[in-house]
Amino acid sequence: MAMRIDFHTHIYPRDLPNFASKYDNDKWPVLEQKCSCGADIMVSGEVFREVTNQVWDTKKRIEDMDHEGVDMQVISPVPVTFSYWAPIEQAVELAQFQNNFIADVVKAHPDRFIGLGTVPLQDAKAAVVELKRCKEIGLAGIEIGTNINGENLDSEYLLPFFEAAEQYEMPLFIHPWETLAQERTPRHNFLYTIGMPSETALAAASLVWSGVMEKCPNLKVCFAHGGGSFPYILPRLDQGWDVWPSLRRTKYPPSHYTKNFYFDSLVYESQNLHYLIERFGHEKIMMGSDYPFLLREINPGKIIDETLDLSEEVRKAILGENAMSFLNVERSRVLNGKSSENA
Question: In which pathway does it act (predicted)?
Fold first, then answer.
């Protein structure tokens, strides 16, 4: 049976300090628990997101994983906690708390969880320092947002961070946040269904057009939600590169630089999964559900299971093997965990 690694899941420390009170600024996210099984994440005095205990309760997580057939979760911070707007000393404090928490969860359950950290990208030097520390405490990669206070990922000041991620073999998981056109997307929750995919496309396009991926050819990057709209506009980007030679920053067109782009499988329909496989190769797709939020896939890997024409080799790769390769995780770690549970 194929092992199942859910690459895209989020976790929030139940005891995250109240930075809003500590630093007298209500822009900080605060978890206000309503009952033992639910809470509100508050930002600027308003409910940012209602969450269940799945977001902080490791025991509940493992119960869900067992019920839904997931062997391991890759856990990463909830994007609202990136807090790139904050003073750097405070942002470092928050990042370190979360990274220590995630590392502790992984250490307590090494056969069930793999951890991704967060870094304060408003300061590239501080981000590099925390990236190195994340590797030292056993985290397998870094989750970052799609922009830094309105600066796209091709901003020159970020290049040392990408170079460090490449050097220290810390793959990046890029997740949308602070999406574009926020003033036009509050109704109908378009922020989540349209804003986020568009924001992700802008982030991916920035990396391939600007030369970041050309300068960092061994940097591995995964984009949330199947890459948003990026896979479908990539030919248009190539056309733009072709007809506007004065705007070129790379030797080859944008599609040339996607060889180290990976995508989670959260695309909801088999035809979309087929498109990702055909364009980028099945080796670049990783099962991801967005656990524990409302738009998640239940059960994780549902679309992969329902895409009946996939070979067993391709199915195994997408369900788990690609995630291990992307995160440089030893296969024995996962197999040992499965063996101990079956004993």
Answer: Secondary metabolite metabolism; quinolate metabolism
